[in-house]
Design goal:
The protein is of the alpha+beta class. The chain folds into four domains: 2-92, no CATH class; 139-345, no CATH class; 348-525 and 751-878, no CATH class; 548-731, no CATH class. The protein has 25 helices and 24 strands. It is globular.
Length: 880
Amino acid sequence: MSDLRGVRRTVPPRLTRGSADADVDAEMTAHLEQLAEELVEQGWDPDDAVAEAARRFGDADRLRAEVRDIDAPRERSLRRSAWLGSVGQDLRYWARQLGRSPGHAAVTILTLALGIGLTTSMFTVVNGVLLRPLPFPEPEELVSFGVASPDDVGGQLNVRDEHFAELEREMASFAAVGGYMVYPPTTLTGAGDPARMTAAWVTAGFFRALGVGPALGRDFDPSEHEQGVHSVVILGHDLWVGRFGADEGVIGRTATLDGVPRTVVGVMPPGVSFPGRTDLWLPLQAHPMLAQGLTFGYATVGRLADGVSPAAARSELAALGRSAQWRINGEEPVSRVVDLQETIVGDSRYRLMLFSGAVALLLLIACTNVANLLLMRATAREQEIGLRMALGAGRRRLLRQLLTESVVVACVGGALGVGVAAVGVRGLLALAPAGAIPRDQELGLDPVVLGFALAVSVATGIAFGLVPALKSTRRGLRDTLSQGSRTHSGGGGLARGALVVTELALAVVLLTGAGLLLRSFQEVRSIDLGFDPEGALTFYVDLPADAYATAETTIALHERVLEGLGGISGVEVAGGANFEPFGPLSLSTRIRTEDGAPGRTATGWTTVSPGYFRAMDISVLSGRGFQPTDDAVAPPVAVLSRTLARQLWPDREAVGKRLLEGDGASVTVVGVVGDVVESDVLGDQRPLMYRPFTQNDYAPQLHHMSYVVRTDVSAAGMAAAMREVVREADPDIPVGSVVSMDDVVLDSLGDRVFQMRVLGAFAILAMLLAAVGVYGVTAYSVSQRMRELGIRVAMGARGTQVAALTLRKALGLTVVGLLIGGGAAVVAARLIAASLYQVTPSDPVTLVVVALVLGGVAVGAALIPARRASRVDPVEVLGA
């Protein structure tokens, strides 16, 4: 059949993109050969037989197209199998490379695990707080609303209790509305050890507005919101499980709260703890302080009616607020309706975005570090890549191989990063002050977070692997092979240097942000508080209302506790106040001078014990403080803060003057003390009037008492004795934690401390990664120049000269990185300007300190390989 060579085809020996067409051609060739052979056997000339066979066979192109349509699924399957096979080859090759350089792979993977893990942890928080819908039905219909005076439109959204019933009755924009208040924790007894629980006092429509109801039992009956009706409570799921053993028979049982027996009527489903981390809910109108005719502001939640927009609800609320009784200080209030999620998120959006930006910088530094490692690895593999290209591997195939390696490394790092993320979320929550991260109980590594981690891993794998892959496959075989004969290689040096500069510049940005916050915090801590927190210890108690229903019994208890605290060894003086600085509550009242204008002056108000001013080290500027003789039978007396005294009597001495309280009672001023910070270190020190607690005849105002002692002993050394004093006075009263006043002040600065600590941790990690980058580049440069350095030493160069030669490049990169980073830091620091106090974003002290610290760390990292270079043995190097 040699005469039939013209119809034979060569089938490609390996599978290619056109392999299906090749199979069709081979089959047609076989048919033509068979038909031509039959014609030759019948006596045809071989050439004529080939032509006749082709004529009888028909249109080959048409037949090829028909067969291709029939075999298209088979071709796709073959291509998919080929792709999977090549990926498998890439993975096996990567595994072999991993075995050859496990140290390099470990550093790369761990660096990525850190960067991807921290990024994933921050996304977990952002997703849980900002992106995930609220855990209620139709959460987009939930809003918070309220009215405020024109000069307080950015304050908390609330509606005064006296207006809430009218709002519920008149507004058609809401399908349901609820009001709530959160007071200091309530004491649960009779279900294990006495414990403090967070209680929310809610109106009748609260749960209906949220769209949730108890999983066990029922909601509050409308009559249970009326004064004098029997007391009831709804338990949170976690409280039900932890304190009542998840007993479904708990409905109808009694839970004692602040000494008041309350019937359990319901248990909420898991995940419902609004507002905040509420443990239990109580009917709002049943709160004892509301029975005294005081006015409160209700925080609100509303569910919009079908088809009603927030703007329409705001217009209706504004129309309702135009009536005279809604006016605030004679002014028409400003109405606001805001998405409930925005209300819950509050100021946390700013800090979460700040942290996310810092984590993004940290991830960039980690990726830059890994890209540098891969560039160094790529230089070492140039001969291998060149040989593979010489043997027929195309550049596209090699690029895919190298990118597969980098993506696999990133995915392994991402898998480890998920573990880092779990730890990172717990660490972030541990650092955060109470309420700084809302919805924290909902945070977790859900499928959305895991998908994000995978996407980040693949994206970073491509991002940091692309440049080294392009560089590795760019050079020809001749250049690659000739590279081995050179003494020194500068290949990739520019790219590696640029990456180190980038690392250093990004680290400068993070370090500068952390440094500015630290400087700002130092300035805040230097503010005069009006009292000396150092050497003062404090704790608080909340008394059960039924056991201490009268002022006489309440005062008697406080006197016993104060006497016992004062008798503890090491205590100089003990005091107490019902509304202490940085405490959970404060009260205001209106007073006027007995002989002055008829107008009333608004002032803060608190009731204290005789030793309070000494215990807090509040200066008595004139007159005296309170004495034990200022009791219920003595004439009413008061001590004023300096600001209040100047407001009431600008040109005269306040001591000895008389003023009238809100109820018209006349009070004599016996002393003036210095102004103190009440709740906000950076806020104005508002006017404050002090009254002796022994002259307070309203028991509910004495149920919360904060005790303070001045001592040189630490809180840990004094806590047991202080708790024992309270147990001896009344063993059923739970005692709050004994802490130093300095810690109380620090807790009031929680947001600033939180931001400073988190950014500080990120800055330290960035500095370490930058140091690793400088070390890696310098160490690689030394290894590449060993022969050159050996020749220099052999020609008489001293070790210090060799070390200086090695350090020169590292110093140059460091200086460039610091300069670029300094300029970027000044621009980026404007984003945290709202968190700074008495410090500008371009603070020169911070910039200089950051440059010195980071520059010192970078030089220290470069010194290690430089020292190795200074000790090179020319005999060993040149003889190799």
